[in-house]
Design goal:
The protein is an alpha/beta fold. The chain has 15 helices and 15 strands. β12 and β13 form a beta hairpin. α7 runs antiparallel to α14, α8 runs parallel beside α11 and α11 packs across α14. The longest helix has 20 residues. The protein is globular and about 60 Å long. The N terminus is likely disordered.
Length: 455
């Protein structure tokens, strides 16, 4: 995936986390390379997290994959440990054929609605682009199937409200693919913060990889294997541009929100978890795009900074960093910031990212929590948790309301950036405060026939 143009954009010159590798090595000698978990937490986790083991062939449910791109096929590879893959579906026949071959000749479909007519199907992996998540998820649940949906869960805030209501009505399991919730380092950080380990929480920083700033792009003939109209779905119909489709769709506002909704759905989810607001949200939002996008190129903001305030007084800064590529790879110098989440309080800070957890003092991590401390939902395998919940019917670790509320934080940032002003938000009513102009951004027009009427 090309990121041409992104490296030429003005980088952030300050380190919002104020963490250098040298400082970390000085302060974390008790945590090997910053990646090892403390012994006390490992021992407690063994009893807390239910380990989901692969089932015998006769016990496995039947599943299908809808959206056979790279992420969808990766998710289904993980799911195949717990289920039988009997069908795949994609509007690109090459993708569908490749997935069918990968998963033992699973029957290939071009229309997910036909796939859902099967009475031998129990659950679905939804690996479609963001603008198709909600219509697919609603249709799957109303067809009586459970669903594991890639993040970000929705394209709009209104979509999330509809998904939460549908899950409650149908009593189906919907797991949002925010897999960091099943990573012990992120849970450890959130448990420590929720139990006052950093003192009174005052500020959270979520750093996200910057998006590409490419363009201008040009139209091309639609590939014969691709149903371009179906792929566009509810979004405005436009001429085919290769960069709009498949892996780079998320950098177009029509289909997603750039890295703000891609990586933001991960790290802002952890910010909400640590703040204890995973079923709520901020009350003020002020966002700004830091670079102009190229006319005729990607339309989702490449570099940005958004400031949030919560009712409990905690501030959240969500900012892009040009030193990390859209795939999460790090290209900076030693000491440059990396994407992740930093919790700051009156008694110290904790920083967590994939494969690494650090603290201002090693004892913040090594000292065990008390027996009566607040404990969070423990999962050791995100896909396994989904299948465990299919059997038990208990809510998964990232149930619809949590997935919806996490990406709502991201959507609010995008709306503020596009409106260019500060916004006030009522997280209980899920509306802006006395702001009809901003409320219009809670939904988007749907192009017929790809509307809620088809569900």
């Amino acid at each position: 995936m090309s990121t041409s143009g992104n490296r030429k954009a003005a980088p952030m010159t300050t380190n919002p986390l104020n963490i250098s590798r040298r400082d970390f090595l000085k302060t974390s000698t008790a945590i090997a390379a910053g990646s090892a978990l403390p012994v006390w937490f490992i021992e407690e986790s063994r009893s807390q997290a239910a380990t989901t083991k692969p089932l015998s062939p006769n016990e496995k449910p039947n599943i299908a994959l809808i959206g056979c791109g790279g992420q969808g096929r990766y998710d289904t590879t993980l799911a195949a440990r717990f289920a039988n893959v009997i069908a795949v579906c994609d509007v690109d026949t090459k993708h569908a054929e490749a997935a069918s071959k990968q998963f033992g000749g699973a029957k290939a479909y071009g229309d997910f609605r036909k796939l859902l007519e099967r009475d031998d199907l129990h659950a679905v992996i939804n690996g479609t682009p963001d603008h198709w998540h909600t219509l697919v998820n609603l249709t799957v649940m109303k067809a009586g199937k459970d669903v594991y949906s890639e993040k970000p869960l929705t394209l709009t805030i209104d979509e999330g409200k509809r998904l939460v209501a549908a899950a409650r009505e149908t009593k189906r399991i919907l797991q949002t693919g925010s897999q960091q919730r099943s990573d012990p380092r992120f849970r450890l950080a959130c448990e420590l913060v929720r139990n006052g380990r950093v003192g009174r929480l005052t500020h959270i920083t979520t750093l996200l990889p910057a998006g590409p700033r490419g363009g201008p792009f040009h139209t091309a003939p639609v590939p014969p294997e691709l149903n371009w109209d179906f792929w566009q779905g509810q979004t405005p119909s436009v001429d085919y541009v290769p960069q709009r489709c498949h892996g780079s769709f998320r950098y177009w506002y029509d289909y997603s929100g750039g890295t703000m909704t891609d990586w933001g759905a991960h790290h802002n989810d952890i910010a909400q978890w640590g703040n204890g607001t995973e079923r709520s949200g901020p009350v003020t939002i002020e966002g700004k795009s830091l670079v102009e996008m190229i006319p005729g190129g990607y339309t989702a903001a490449s570099q940005y900074r958004v400031e949030y305030t919560y009712a409990n007084g905690v501030k959240l800064t969500c900012a892009s960093i040009a030193t990390d590529g859209p795939d999460g790879s790090h290209h900076g110098k030693p000491g440059d910031p990396i994407h992740g989440v930093k919790f700051e309080g009156t008694d110290g800070w904790i920083f967590v990212t994939r494969g690494n957890i650090e603290a201002s003092r090693p004892e913040l991590l090594t000292e065990p929590l008390s027996p009566d401390a607040t404990r969070l939902y423990a999962s050791d395998n995100h896909m396994g948790n989904f299948f465990e919940c299919i059997r038990s019917r208990k809510p998964p670790i990232c149930e619809p309301e949590i997935g919806h509320r996490s990406v709502t934080v991201c959507h609010l940032g995008v709306i503020s950036m596009r409106l260019g002003r500060k916004l006030n938000w009522d997280p209980e009513r899920e509306q802006f405060v006395s702001d009809a102009e901003a409320d219009r951004w809670l939904t988007r027009p749907q192009r017929k026939p790809y509307t809620y009427d088809q569900v």
